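Below is how a single chain appears once it has passed through the pipeline. First comes the sequence as given, then the structure the pipeline wrote out for it. We keep one example in the README because the format questions we get most often are answered faster by looking than by reading.
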Amino acid sequence: MKKFILCFCFFIIFLALIPYKTTSADTYSYARVIKEVGFYKTTSDEKPLFYLPYSYYVKVLEEGAVFSKIECFGENSLSPSLEGFALTDDLVKETSLEVFSPYLSFTIETASYTPLYQDINFDKISQYLFENRTLNYYGYNKVNGGYVYFVEYNGKLGFVREESIKPFTLPLHENPIDVPVVTPPNEEVQNENDNSNSLSVIILVLTLVLTVAVIIYIFVPKKPKLNTGYYDENDFE
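Resulting structure:
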């Protein structure tokens, strides 16, 4: 019985030493677009694919010295999500405001029969679009002093010329721009990790106390019991 108790005690110690983990949020952070921020398809591109909507956010997946890997759109936006890169120095990575509805959800309409170009140089046409077709908007770029828009239509990405689109005005994000940068990213994740570590310490301490109590019970010699029965002189006959 004593061996069984001892084995059980060591088993509890082994479990306590296993790192305690809880499910936590992803460790990404949001960065805000408060200047002209280009979205690059790869880090080797000389020019951005388009410029991101002013006042909205991107999700920073990996931060680098020159480029950061980002994700934009998707998550309650009409435009499907895209992964690419932005210059790290162009992104404001911290904000005192709560990030909600981070991405622009906006559509534009064709004003006339127009091509949807695969590239910004208008070398390849993906398809032709009729008038009054709704396009999901990503951003703009500049070509020869004019504007082109990067859009999505029926699963196809491409560019349309400014003169082929009805006039529009992009809405600003509800969060104001002129705010101090004070709140560090991932604060909630750090707090969850702190709680996890505290719980692990408590479990370990309780396990060690239990172990010491069992060892004392098993190995410390017990005092012999005194004979308190009544004395009978016939016991010695």
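The longest helix spans residues 187-219.

See the next section for the split statistics.
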